[in-house]
Amino acid sequence: MYKNIKDIGLFQNIFYFKVMWALLILLKINPMLREKSTPLFIFLIIYGALIILYDLFGKRQSMDNRYFILVFLLLLLMGISVLVNFPDKMVDNVKIYITTAISFLLISRAELEKNKDQLRHEMGIINTIIIVGVSIATFISLYLFFKGINGIYDLDFWRIDNERALYQYGLSSENRLVGIFTNPNPLGAFNTIAILLALINIKVLPKKAIYKIFFFLTIAMNFIAVILSNSRGAIYALIVSFFVFTFTFFMERFKNYKAYLNTFISLSLSLILTFTLYQAIPEIDKEIRDFSLHFRDAESEQEEIELIEERVKLAGSDDLVVRSGTRLFLWEVGFNTAKISPIFGVGKANLNEVVLKNWDVEKKAPRLGGGGLHNIYLETLVAYGILVLILLILLLSLVGIDVLVAIYKDWSSDNLYAWLGIGITIIMIFDLTRNLVESGMLYSVDLSSFSFSLYLGYAMYYAQKNRLTSKTNLVFRANEGFRNQIDKIFS
Question: What is the spatial order of strands in the sheet that 177-179 belongs to?
């Protein structure tokens, strides 16, 4: 049964740290609250460093994870990249490196010392914190939408290239829901994450009916927000995740059928439902917008949203928004930039500046601001080089294969934990799919990076807990050798 987490200690059990980090990223949803979260962020960096040192000089439980050697090499090469790109934006590069190290070493820690019920309970708590926080922000955002309240505000303390940061609220200039979030794309991503986490809680946690009703209501509200955000990356990734969920749901539903018939029926039904959802989204969007007109005061004046010209124009006559609208041109420039330093990259903090020099423009454009190169794999290649990208793909591939094998083994013997593995897989699929067209999975402090890091840790746990591992596995043997050397040094 679930053991009281207080018995384990503040520095050995990182559940406390994960909860506080979840609260941090919820504060960062809103631009005005983001500045207020700095003290908490600094505290968590110090707290995280103490946890890492406690583990290093203690039981070194983080190294029980057989994927640890890949994580260590990944961070080592990223650190070399930071040094190679010295002194260009050294402070900013170090900050990004520290937050990335915290993500991999703490938030993604497998915690194999915990039993499955304990981990499932902690997962449910963190999921619920995120669902509640995102849903509150979504409720406020939808209120602004239905009342027709929108406009622009600036934050003098938050600057982009020494210019005051301007933010929109309510609806953006493209008639997309932004609410109280930073922009429509994070809104779409965060709401989709909240939807998937609610599905996991419904399926995996033994909750009373009232809790399930609450989770279903949050799913409906967040789904409306995703549609109104018109975030293509979030919507496409949600559709892929929906297909995986419905396919596995029907596979379980018809498990008494013959295998080939079960697969055919499940695949057919999931494809039909997924295609129907995809086709229905534009119509649902239109109906919601028409319905919202009944709640608005016809006499109220709304601030007109316009594009900020000085933040959009190029030095020449080309229009960056048009040229990079499909992201294809942006990726082409990214690949060209990667050739400048293919082994160790140009540095994450230097990325925008180097890319724009390669682009021959003078002003940073909106699509190359927080969105970066709109592809996390390309961004990793440009920022840290080909070796880091290879290690990242190798880590994700090995963990993904092991999780699928574990789900297959649990499918016939332990249906509850099979669904736990499926839920973990769906979150990972969403993050990996969305970040084909976005760059929020790594190198940032927000819900996208937190959900990826958190569920990568859960995936590594699920792939290893109570599983027999062949010692002929190259990664296993490498990790064992590395662990032995570390034990000799610190023993």
Answer: 151-160, 163-171, 177-179
Segment 464-473 mean pLDDT: 64
Query: Where does residue 58 rank: exposed (0-12), middle (13-18), buried (19+ CB within 10 A)?
Result: exposed
Task: Say which residues have a Cβ less than 8 Å from residue 68's Cβ, sequence separation at least 6.
Answer: 62, 479, 482, 483
| Residue 87: cis peptide before it, omega within 30 degrees of 0 | yes
Taking Cα atoms as reference points, which of 449, 463, 456, 461 lies closest to residue 130?
449
- Helix and strand totals (H; E) in the chain: 18, 3
The torsion angle over the Cα atoms of residues 87, 89, 91 and 97, rounded to 10 degrees, is -100
CA angle, corner 425, sides to 375 and 47, nearest 5? 75
Q: Is 364 left (phi over 0), alpha (psi -120 to 50) or beta?
A: beta
Say which residue the tokens 């409720």 belong to.
139
List C-alpha distances in Å: 140 to 179, 231, 433: 7, 19, 28
Matching residue, tokens 């859960």: 458
Q: Which amino acid is at 384?
A: Y
pLDDT digits (tens, 9 = 90+) for 306-350: 444 433 332 232 333 334 455 777 888 889 889 999 999 999 998
Give the position of tokens 């249906």. Answer: 415
Residue 145: count of CB within 10 angstroms of its CB: 23
- Spatial neighbors of 401 by CB under 8 A, at least 6 apart, are none
As a whole number of angstroms, the distance between CA 309 and CA 314 comes to: 10
pTM for this entry: 0.88
Token look-up 């980090």 returns 21
Q: How far is CA 257 from the centre of its chain?
A: 37
Place of tokens 């067209």: 437
Strand partners, 57: none
Give the pLDDT band of residue 208 (cuts 50, 70, 90): confident
Note whether 67 and 391 are within 8 A (CB).
no
| pLDDT tens digit sequence for 5-45 | 444 467 888 999 999 999 999 999 999 898 889 999 999 99
Sign of the Cα torsion 198, 200, 205, 206 reads positive
Token code pair at residue 162: 């020494």
